[in-house]
Amino acid sequence: MATKNGDLVSFRPDIKVLDATLRDGGLVNNFQFSDDFVRALYQANILAGVDYMEFGYKADRDIFNESDFGKWKFCKDEDIRKITQGIDTDMKIAVMADVGRTNFRRDILPKEESPIDMIRVATYINSIPAAIEMIEDAKRKGYETTVNIMAVSKVNLDELKDGLRHLAASSVDVIYLVDSFGVFYPEQIVRLSDMYLEVAAAFNKQIGIHAHNNQQLAFANTIQALTIGVSYLDATVNGMGRGAGNCYLENLLGFLRNPKYRLTPIMKFVQDYMLKLKQDGLIWGPDIPYLLTGILNTHPSSAIKFLKDGRTDYTAFEQELLDNAL
Amino acid sequence: MATKNGDLVSFRPDIKVLDATLRDGGLVNNFQFSDDFVRALYQANILAGVDYMEFGYKADRDIFNESDFGKWKFCKDEDIRKITQGIDTDMKIAVMADVGRTNFRRDILPKEESPIDMIRVATYINSIPAAIEMIEDAKRKGYETTVNIMAVSKVNLDELKDGLRHLAASSVDVIYLVDSFGVFYPEQIVRLSDMYLEVAAAFNKQIGIHAHNNQQLAFANTIQALTIGVSYLDATVNGMGRGAGNCYLENLLGFLRNPKYRLTPIMKFVQDYMLKLKQDGLIWGPDIPYLLTGILNTHPSSAIKFLKDGRTDYTAFEQELLDNAL
Fold first, then answer.
1. Which one of A81, A108, B130, B289 is least enclosed by Cβ atoms within 10 Å?
2. Can you list the domains of chain A with their CATH numbers?
3. How many beta carbons lie within 10 A of that of residue A263, not counting itself?
């Protein structure tokens, strides 16, 4: 049963904040961030007390053409070093490695040869054995590891429990509750967090949360989860992320009570760098089409296309979703 | 103690939805809605199963100059009739009456002579006796009545409890928990709702919630409150309302399970009428300046001015707030 962990005045030292702006935001602009942007974000995150900054994906260059994407789709170690060189910090660097889309044996070097600290493995429920193979590889190489089970809103609970137990028995450090489609309400997040935390307690693992903002619940769900013991919290600056986007890092930093966390550097980064992205025409954030895909528990791709096409006929889109997308 | 009332599959017949678009949204455009807009909203709300539509304020024309505002600042009975005539419905009509700004003896007619069904009295904690005078007047005249205690985030809890007891002992039907400054987190809303519900239970009253979206929590706070028994739910189309705006009616209708509620007519109203308001330059909705006034528990007026002035220097604004506005 959900029990409260901490209150609104004190702070929990086990909380870790991960900035996923480049990774989830990279899905908005095809990872086309300038080095200036990335370096400024890196410095802002350090000043804000962020614990981990996710730079992007470790995607396989045999599957994805390098010229089709910005460099943060691939997160080469030398590209990361170009950003971080000369900056002294204990903020850690994470990258995401998708099951089936990462040549992890080749592209993930031993930790002591790499600027990366944490490998975040993203998997669907049916590829958990492949995820565990990647986790164990990363662990052997010396990395912290997390695993994101995606699209759990479409997974039956018994299967999810089995998956959680298998992952918890692996070497992974943190298991993430991911609301890929932005479908969950806070009371469901509390119930799911409870389930994840129960498995985690038995295996001495941590639980994280990665929320999407289809129903304007990403921040609410994140703080509801942390209130009962979830400790790794994903957010992005200005909520930048695919479709409806993510939990706003600004809101999260405004909520957290640990004095190491500071909102001001992130606001400064927004005024200096993020506003321009929106002016330049990038689109993300809550909107009716994403509300619909959230309510209907489906992938946001159709809503992204709807908005890219400049459409506003929501009622026709609703019928298309009911006819085709479910 | 908070106990769950209802689940995510069934529905609670005691739930009532109130659309406050014209009233709270009127604070964005000075109540300058066209009759065409208001009539279309009225019809959309009927189709959507909304229980009450708030048309605006019953402001005193001796205090406010009629030529300075659109007509929904005053909600004359004949202006309401012009909208509703020829439309047969059991959706009820509400207006808001501010303590000290309403000539209620003159302007609120006996119910049988008026198209209005509900008088919503808005008060601060220090004018509760004056609010009760208005409530009893409206009740004698035959109206349903609600009372909004505003700015409770700045009221000490003992005083609030006293205020609640006095209001509960009056003839009022519904007492609203109002998060005027968008400062409360869901766990605080649950605690406050508990307090309001306890008083309500003793006096056989209902509790309502009116949330603001400074921290992107208006919808989350509304459904958290309803989950433990709050039954009157305020929302506005597209969250239109002063500053950060309100709980989105779209999100709320997507959540509620009573088959009488329908999201589609509201989406159609958005595509046909609301999008134009934003294109025409009206500004509302969550943004960093409102996040700051929310976190700092202060009135959004300075943030509204900041955005109207086209400023984006959030970090300077934060310092101004810390220096002056608290």
1. A81
2. 16-279 (3.20.20.70), 288-325 (no CATH)
3. 24
Distance separating alpha carbons of residues B160 and A296, to the nearest angstrom: 41
> Does this complex have an ipTM over 0.85?
yes
CB within 8 A of B178, min separation 6: which ones?
Answer: B148, B149, B150, B151, B152, B209, B210
What is the spatial distance between Cα A5 and Cα B127, in angstroms, rounded to a whole number? Answer: 38
Q: At what angle do helices A218-227 and A186-203 cross, to 10 degrees?
A: 40
| A188/B8 Cβ within 8 A | yes
Q: Is A43 helix (H, G, I), strand (E, B) or coil?
A: helix
What 8-state DSSP symbol labels residue A123? E
Q: Give yes or no for residue A188 having a pLDDT over 70.
A: yes
A7, A190, A216: best mutation site toward chain B, by most B Cβ within 10 Å? Answer: A216
User: Residues B79-131: pLDDT tens digits?
Assistant: 999 999 999 999 999 999 999 999 999 999 999 999 999 999 999 999 999 99
**Residue ranges with strand state E in B91-168:** 92-98, 118-123, 144-149
For residue A326, is pLDDT > 80? no
Q: Which residues contact B119 (CB under 8 A, 6 or more apart)?
A: B58, B94, B95, B97, B104, B108, B134, B135, B138, B143, B144, B145, B146
Residue A274: is its pLDDT beyond 90?
Answer: yes
Give which of B288, B270, B292, B268 is closest to B279, Cα–Cα.
Answer: B270
3 state SS of B311: coil
The two three-digit tokens of residue B148, written as one number: 């909004």
Asked if the Cβ–Cβ distance from A312 to B271 is below 8 Å, we say: yes
Q: Using CB atoms within 10 A of its CB, is residue B308 exposed (0-12), middle (13-18) or buried (19+)?
A: exposed
Instruction: Provide the terminal-to-terminal Cα distance of chain A, rounded to the nearest Å.
Output: 32
In chain B, % of residues over pLDDT 70: 99
User: Which residue type is seen at B105?
Assistant: R
Please report the DSSP string for B237-256 in residue order.
GGG-SSTT-B-BHHHHHHH-
The pTM score is 0.96
φ, ψ (nearest 5 deg) of residue B142: 105, 10
Q: Is residue A238 predicted with pLDDT exceeding 90?
A: yes
- For the four alpha carbons of A8, A9, A12 and A17, in that order, the dihedral sign comes to positive
Give chain A's contact residues with B (Cβ, < 8 Å). Answer: 4, 8, 185-188, 213, 215-221, 223-224, 227, 248, 250-251, 254-255, 263-264, 267-268, 270-271, 275, 288, 291-292, 295, 312-315, 318
